[in-house]
Specification:
Radius of gyration: 22 Å
Order of helices and strands: EEEEEEEHEEEEEEEEEEEE
Helix content: under 10%
Shape: globular
Structural class: mainly beta
Largest sheet: 6 strands, mixed
Number of strands: 19
Distance between the termini: 57 Å
Strand content: over 45%
């Protein structure tokens, strides 16, 4: 019995991929991924391109029109594209700017899809159960940036509180990006109690991209608290990786005392 599990922007248990994203430019025309087999069985790994369109909460397969204006794959080369990995074995995959190509100025994006398939072995059936081999697909974005591009900024909109079924507070918001490039980072929620000292972090969510030309990115942070005292709550969208330390957006909200 076989199945296919697809993970966009996340790592499956069987395959470990590092880093979670890469950036290729004319100054840095080659990026390297490390792929490891963390399972206890040998797997065949294949690497290929896929174009995904960002939605508010995830990804979907890109339309032909979207691929035409955003795909980075025609300008990039991947090597190698196949590898058999023993348990615990790893290998490197290079993504390089195609020699002689002339990408247009701006930012383009494709996803590197890494698929694994277990090597089949004769099995002796010892019970009434049927062994299930799951084929996995893990995708990771590759950003292609050409020319002198304006650093991104962003802002929050449609921010509101909600409660989970267990009574815990949660904050929801949407991130809108501006500029020539897509921001990437984490969103941090800090609370400063009225009359208190330094703000305290009460939640964060990592690996947040707000792709340009896509719908606002929806985020949700659970606080693990049933109430907040009077004070101020600040949401910050802070860059990581090539944007380390950059503050893309910050918004502060007054919190009324509980009734």
């Amino acid at each position: 019995m076989q199945g296919l599990t697809f993970f966009a922007g996340d790592a499956a248990a069987e395959l470990l991929i590092s880093p979670l994203r890469q950036v290729v430019t004319q100054k840095t025309p080659t990026a390297v991924y490390e792929i490891a087999n963390s399972s206890d069985r040998a797997v065949d790994v294949k690497v290929r391109w896929i174009d995904l369109e960002a939605t508010k909460t995830g990804y979907e397969l890109a339309s032909p029109d979207f691929r035409r204006i955003t795909s980075a794959a025609p300008y990039l080369i991947v090597s190698p594209t196949e590898k058999r990995l023993s348990p615990g074995e790893r290998f490197s995959v290079e993504v390089s700017l195609r020699e002689g190509s002339f990408p247009p100025v701006g930012e383009r994006r494709s996803h590197l899809l890494v698929e694994s398939q277990a090597i089949r072995r004769p099995l002796r059936r010892a019970s009434n159960t049927m062994p299930a081999d799951i084929d996995l697909g893990v995708s990771t974005p590759v950003m292609l940036r050409i020319g002198e591009l304006k650093r991104p900024t962003a802002f929050f909109e449609a921010t509101r509180f909600s409660r989970d079924f267990d009574g815990s507070l949660r904050i929801r918001s949407e991130i809108v990006s501006e500029g020539d490039m897509s921001p990437y980072g984490e969103v941090i929620a800090e609370f400063n109690e009225k009359g208190g000292g330094e703000p305290v972090e009460i939640g964060r969510v990592a690996n947040i991209s707000a792709y340009r030309g896509s719908p606002p990115r929806a985020i949700s942070i659970k606080f693990g608290l049933e109430s907040l005292s009077a004070g101020t709550l600040t949401l910050k969208y802070v860059g990581v990786a090539e944007y380390a330390g950059v503050l893309f957006a910050s918004e502060t909200f007054d919190v009324a005392p509980p009734e």
